[in-house]
Write a structure and sequence with these properties.
- By secondary structure, the chain is an all-alpha fold.
- The chain has one domain.
- It is built from 5 helices and no strands.
- α2 runs antiparallel to α3 and α3 crosses α5.
Length: 120
Amino acid sequence: MGGILASLALPEVQTLGMTAIAAVFGFFKRRAAVKKYNLERAMQCLESGVQTVYDEYVRVLKNGADDGKLTDIERRQARDLAVQKAKEYAASDGIDLAKIYAADYLPVLVENLIKKSKAA
């Protein structure tokens, strides 16, 4: 037992231990940074999807409508199209939106982004 404790006092063993601790710390820090980047990029993809659908689809429908508003069906189609566009944008960056946000939650996020853009 004394030999083991004595070997722990060796500088080489201490250096090896500190290196292992630093490697584990670095791994988790990097993992957190990648997760944060993916969350930020996923939100940017959702925002881009909403903006693209507005520019290419919603605006045309609103201009063609007598009252300038979308029907419930058109609104649902626009939301679904925005989710699809966001998934495409994210996939081109190697990000799976369904892994970052639950697939059922994506339409809710799109609705929230639409409400924010209307309020701005």
